[in-house]
Predict the structure.
Amino acid sequence: MKMKEAALIYLDKSGGLQKFVNDCKSYCNESSQACAIFRFLILVNPSDITELDATLGNYILHQPVKGTQIFQSVCFTAVKTLSLIQQIETEAQMNIVLKLTHLPSLPCYILSLCKFPFDYTTQRFYVAEGIVIAMSIITKYTQGAKFVCSEETCQFSEGFQYVRVHTAGATESATLRNDFACSLCMSPLKEDKKYRVLGDKQVVEMIDSKAISVFQGFSGNKTHLRFQSFTVFLRDELSNEMKMGNQYKIIGIPICMQSYLQATICLEANSVYPSNSTGPSCISEKFKYLLSLTSNSCWKFTALLADSFASKVLPSGIYNILKLSIMLSLVQTIDGDDKTADYLDLLVITNDSLTLERL
């Protein structure tokens, strides 16, 4: 009860309670007569919650399922007390998603691909940073489903007693299966398919930003890094939040999916933020010196840059025109969502595929 009171106080102080009320009103305005599951996003600042109630903050950071259940209970009480949504009959119909603003800046919250999954015994939040190297199209997944008892004489053959929603790190079979049983009469449950709710899902492959040095032909750090990519699941509002080649920080729950003898590292994203890492804020003295030496010609400077471009993966003096084109493409690259930008497309035909892969 104490943690529920703390959750209610936090929602009131942070403005989350008013946002929740407004979200409930939007459900009432829509045609929701055939809706069994109501999804709400709640923005959570772990530092503020921990300062308000340390136990609740610990639940959110280290036992997110229990932390979500506390907010779910508070929100259900608010719905019933204020008569916000008439269609909600049970607490299970409320799909509460806690969106974390950040994680504490401590080493224990950084996802280590070297140690995973050996030191990761509980499913809690971690932060990972990487570069997007592959993306899938947006597909559908089951966000939630309603089940009823197959025994018609059972009191749970109607109503919303059995509602299952997707939880972070769970597979599709955790929401939809044929072996669910009624807790009252142990009869099999059957899905009421007209109440099934679908959401958007996108699968992204990322690689640790520290592993980029491997593709440059050298590695200054002799520690053993894990160079293969890891999978990130983006769901619903996070779909299309990433772009190919960009670097991001992801707050999420890591899971290890076993397929026969192969283990795959996956991260269920909770929040996605662009990486703050930037290049140098000033031009280096070497570039200034090179520019002064070639100031008598408008082409010498760019020719020397193209000649030495990607020298760590290619010998100097080859593919200069291609390297010059890549340099122009990099200069033209614009951060942000500027759809009016004219991008430079390159078509390269060669038998030397290794060189192109290195570039």
